[in-house]
Amino acid sequence: MKKIFIILVLLMLVVCTFANLVVYTSVDEANARKILNAFSEETGIKVDYVFLSSGPALARIEAESNNPQADVWFGAPMANHIIAKDKGLTMPYKTVSVYGVSPEFYDIDGYFHPIYMNPLGVGINTEVLKQIDGPMPVKWEDLLNPAYSMMIQYPNPQSSGTAYSFILGLIEVFGEDGAMEFLRNLAPNVQTYTQSGTGPSKAVGPGQTAMGIQFTPAFFQFMEQGYPIAVVFPEEGVPYEIACTSIIKGAKNVEEAKALIDWIVSKKGQQQIVDQKTYFYPIRPDVDFGSLQPLSTIKLLKVDENWAAENKSRIVEKWVEEVLPY
Amino acid sequence: MGVKSEEIKNRTKNLIKDPLLLITIIVIFVLIAIFIVYPLLKVFFVSLREPSGNLSFSAYGKSLSNRYMLQGFRNSLVVAGLTAFFGMFIGYIFAYTINRTDIPFKGFFRTIAIMPIVFPPFIGALSIIMLFGFNGLITANIFGIRNFPVYGFWGLMIAQIVSFFPVAFITLDGVIGTISPTLEDAAFNLGANRWQAFVKVILPMSVPGIASTMLILFIESLADFGNPLILAGSRFPILSVQAYLQITGMNDTRGGAAIAIWLLIPSLIAFILQKYWVAKKKYITVTGKPTISVLKSVSKPMKWFLFSLCVIFSIFILIIYVTIFWGAFTQSWGMNNTFTLNNFKYVFDVGLHSIIDTLIIALTSTPVSALLGMIIAFLLVRKTFPGKRLMEFSSVLSFAVPGTVIGIGYIFAFNTPPFLLTGTLAILVFNFVFRYMPVGIQSGVALLNQVDPAIEEAAYTLGADNRQVFSKITLPLIVPAFFSALVFAFVRAMTAISAAIFLVSANWNLITVQILSQSDSGRLSEACAFSVILIVMIMAFVFILKLFLKNKISLSNNNTI
Description:
Chain A is α/β, with parallel strands linked by helices. Chain A has helices at 2-17, 29-43, 54-63, 78-86, 126-131, 161-174, 176-186, 199-204, 217-224, 254-265, 267-275, 305-322; strands at residues 21-25, 47-51, 72-77, 90-91, 112-125, 152-155, 190-194, 211-215, 229-232, 240-248. In chain A, helix 2 links the parallel strand 1 (21-25) and strand 2.
């Protein structure tokens, strides 16, 4: 009995000294696995990770701040990392890998670093589109076509950052009042406002609705699996999200965490984003994009993150008042 | 006055005379304080603390000040009330038909009625959309309806009734099974017809069971999160989802906690009402006297009417599961029906670790939860001790609170010494034990109220002590309740998501978190495959448990489990 106890204690000590890098990943499990495995293979650093979508991850990092359980928060849109920075939950690290990355993609103080980007688009189930005899849209305006009545889903901005990005993009295109008017006119075509940002794709894939508006990787994933899905990037332009990563303040494996940041921002790491078939867009222009629709053919709308953060509650309330009841 | 203090003195004296009982009571109180009350107090404290550090109730007023939240509050109550009633109703029909008629395929109906207890989070709700949506199997392919309002009230009601009625069935099955048919014989002998026998004998005797199942269903529906997240949509707000979104979408833990505590109020009122109502209605049916009788409670036409109701409902449930299996074994759910096993290959490749973790966690927490539940039920029904009401009340608290809040509360409470538990197996196990124990307590109490204390008194008279009476007399008598507590705790440990999502760690992960992650990233078929594995594991567990307990069920002669 005593022996077993001693062995157990020794084992625990061994485990403690060779602790792996612990990562909370808001990148979905399968893709996180691909990316982090590639990292482990190249550097020999072992990674343990838990999938937590961005909201729960932030809530949890905050609740654990007196005794952090993870070293790195991997994934989740930049806005969440800005909140984490403002709340003092993360620590700065300036990586040399950022040379060659466009400056709006990272934090000048080094609190967060880009992993990849996703444009927002309209995912369309072509079979359902045939069933309802609808034309293929090319512009945002086209979505107002009565042929799509009750056949479009997009997320609710109260709960989803994706939806807020969508509205911000529309504001860039139509102005604030124009965007609200557009969404109000769109309301008769909306089947439901989903609670989660990836909700629409779950109905579009199996043909329970014709179109969903959200960030596009899930749609590409459906395409790969053989679902009849097409993705349209409306020609007025689309917003995009940048998934970021931060080192959590109080991390126990800081050196390994820094190695991960160095790697993911570097050309090598970014090439893996494409090579591992994550369907994410790399944030460096100097990598091979493979089979992805080249970014040059998609009009990207730049969003002022500071304005976005300051006006969030006002815009969301406006949406609740002027769009939701219709 | 003098009499009362005398009585308290006597009770305390009795306790001191029986150290084992005293220690048990103290240990249970300590556990409840640490794992139920303390985390909730932490959350409550968070909801009071303003950013400036002052304490105030302002978050409570604010969280219900707008029309949208009020609407959510009303929706939650309406849905919970209807779910409680219809879930109980369907569960009662199943339990009554199986126990009081000689219909064929009883085993089949029993299995079907227990099956939806494994309603995989998210995928269960998605299968409802697959059946009732635009290209829904039932609405579009059978009835040609394209615009059934699956998002909102109807979809949510269907999902909740299906997923919660098994809880009602399991409890009511135990309750009706223990009502001796000789009582109906007596009624018939006294000249009652079948309807009178039912209304005057069976129905009143199952009232404690009905009340406690409705309470459980009401509370579960209020705290349900996976179904409304997918099915309710923003046009039909539901408060438990709003609490979650407030915390995870708006980074407003304080507001979310306040919403959750609002949500706790109707649950507690329901609990108190049920206590007050049931406390007056106690029936003793297990007396140790002979109970052999022939089933003749319903007429032939009635029997086949009940039979066809059960058949229709069973077919509906089967269709839901077929839909999930269909997703798991085909290339792309609803679009490409080529058979494939690749989804399972992927699941074992990516998720083997979490499958094993889930099993370990469920198998550790289940027996502890069920046994503790039975002990508490025994103490509550059979013993008098100071603080009994408090124990009863606090033990159900964690069940009534939305999981998100419990999850956050556990992190607040157990991330610092002396209770440093985050990232461990223990935090998940404790959470499951204390969160799902109340169901065991409820069904234990419902059953014990039917057991004549004379049986236990006889054992005491023959010289048995408390421990012997509990393990040799009480526990075997409440095996059905113990069984339902085991099944329930196991299933919930396997399918929990809302609290667990805050407690999983790199070392200990759960299948449900995988389902969420896979379906979020567009791998619906893989998420279905995970769900199928979940269903198969739980059904296997229930099956093994039944085999194991088969010979030990000695209650009513016609209980053919």
